[in-house]
Amino acid sequence: MAGATLAIGLPVWLAVWQNRNEKQKRREADDLKFQLKAAEIAMNATESYVVRGRAAALEALFRERLPDGFAKNLDPSKVRFGVGTQLRLEFLKILAENPSSREFLVNVWALMWPGDADPAWDGQANQDYSMWKEHKTYLDEQTPYTQT
Predict the structure, then answer these.
(1) pLDDT, tens digit (0-9, with 9 covering 90-100), for 3-24
(2) For the whole model, what pTM was predicted?
(3) Do the beta carbons of residue 110 and residue 116 sit within 8 Å?
(4) Is residue 129 within 8 Å of 113, Cβ to Cβ?
(5) Environment class of residue 123 by beta-carbon count within 10 Å: exposed (0-12), middle (13-18) or buried (19+)?
(6) What phi, psi does 122 have (nearest 5°)?
(7) Cα distance between residue 115 and residue 120, in whole Å
């Protein structure tokens, strides 16, 4: 009788144990997929500073499904992107399409975005840019205009 109980009970117990392990692994995989999708939603922004706000909103909505500090882990200062990235990519495309105008285009870009051309620029408004005068002089020579 004990042998029959063991012969029936052991496979049943193993099946239940295996089923629990599979459920736990599926639950962990689902949690990971959910967290990755939440991170994808948060990162789907045009500028990096928007990411943390989106992540905080997701964390507030899904407190039980997202780990503590989810929004803090998506730090925009660690990975920066934004409109400037798109502009730079477009600028590179224009440079590739107009190689003969490279110097002129680079000088125009430097006047529009002095922080890209001048490593001494620290991002403050109305700062006297060390390279600005160079680019302005070059453009004045290339594009004569009259002031009224």
Answers:
(1) 777 778 778 888 888 989 999 9
(2) 0.49
(3) yes
(4) no
(5) exposed
(6) -110, 15
(7) 8
